[in-house]
Amino acid sequence: MGSLVMPRRKTRQIRVGPVMVGSDAPISVQSMTNTQTRDTAATIQQIHALTSAGCEIVRVAVPEMVDALAIREIKDRITIPVIADIHFDFRLALAAAESGANGLRINPGNIGARHKVKQVADCARSHGIPIRIGVNAGSLEKEIAQRLGTTAAAMKESGLANIRILEDLGFDDIKVSLKASDVARTVEAYQLLAAETDVPFHVGVTEAGGLYAGITKSAIGIGLLLSKGLGDTIRVSLTRDPVEEIRTGYEILRALGLRQRGPEIISCPTCGRCRINLFKIAEDVEKALLERDTQIKVAIMGCVVNGPGEAKEADIGIAGADGTGILFKKGKVFKKVAQDRLVDQLLYEIDKMTKNSEDV
Ligand code: SF4
Predict the structure, then answer these.
(1) pTM of structure
(2) Class (C level, CATH) for 264-359
C-alpha cells in the first residue's frame, strides 16, 4: 500500500479547536449538519450522532444572525469543534466568532469592501480561529469565470486570489477547498494549487449525489487526491444522513491505509455454495459493531468449505453451512454453533477478545 500513496504534501499547520490540520497531523474527517442551526436541539442531537460516528470537525450553516447566535448554546453542549459556514455577510462571521465558532468558512472575495474583510480577519485572529476559503466551480468570481471558464485552472486562480486577500492583511491561518461536482476537475484543481501554496487542503467532491454516486465519486476523488499526498481534512458529500458521510470518510482512509477507526468487516459476495442468509447476517453484524472503536478484522463468509481459508487474515470470522455455522480465528475453525446463534456468538467472542487486548 505504501507505494500507492505518495508522501503527504508539506503544508503549514492550523488548529481548529483541538484538532490540528495539515502537514503530519492525522487526516481529519468532517461533516456538516443539515438541520437549521437555529434549531439548537436538533442540531445538537445531530452533532452528537456525528461525534459517535467519529466526526472530528462539524460545520453548521449560518444564513442569518439567529443562526450565528445559536452557536453559543450549541458549543456548550458538544465536544467537537464547529465551523460556521457563511456566505457574503461579514457581520455573520463576526457574530459566529463571538459566539465561539472554532473556524469560519467564508470567501474573502465575496465579502466586499476591504475594511469588512479586514474586520473578519482581525476578529478571527483575536479569537485564534482559522478561515477556510471554499472555492466552488459553480460560483466562481465573474471575472475569473469569464477569462478561464469553470475550469480547474479557474478554480486554482480563485483559490489563490482569495488566499492573497487574507495574506495581504497579514492573516495566514487558512485552509482551502476547491470543489467541483466532477472528479477530474476537482483533482486537477488541487494539483494545480498545490504547486503554488502551502495552505492545507480540505478535500471533497461537492454535490456528489445520492448514496451510490456520492460514495463512488467521493471515494475516487478523495482517494485519488489522498493517494497523491494531497488532503489534510476530508468531507464526503452525500444527499443523506451526514453520519453516512463520516462512515464513508473513514472507509476511504482505511482503504488507503491512512487511518483506522472501528472494526473492519469483510464479507464474501456469496455464490451457489452459500446456504445461509448471509446478507442479513452481515447487516446485523455491521449494525452491532457500528459504533465500536475497536480495531479488529471480522469476516462474514458464506460457506465453511472456502470461507475460513478465503478470510485467513481476519482476526475472527463466521461461516455458514446447512443448518449450522462455525467461528474461526485467523482461518482456523475453533467453534461450531447453531446457525441462529452465529451472530450472538461472534459478538460475544469479539467482546472477549477486545476486553483481553484492553487488559494487556
Ligand atoms: Fe462462495 Fe463460500 Fe466463497 Fe462465499 S466463501 S463466495 S459462499 S465459496
Answers:
(1) 0.91
(2) alpha beta
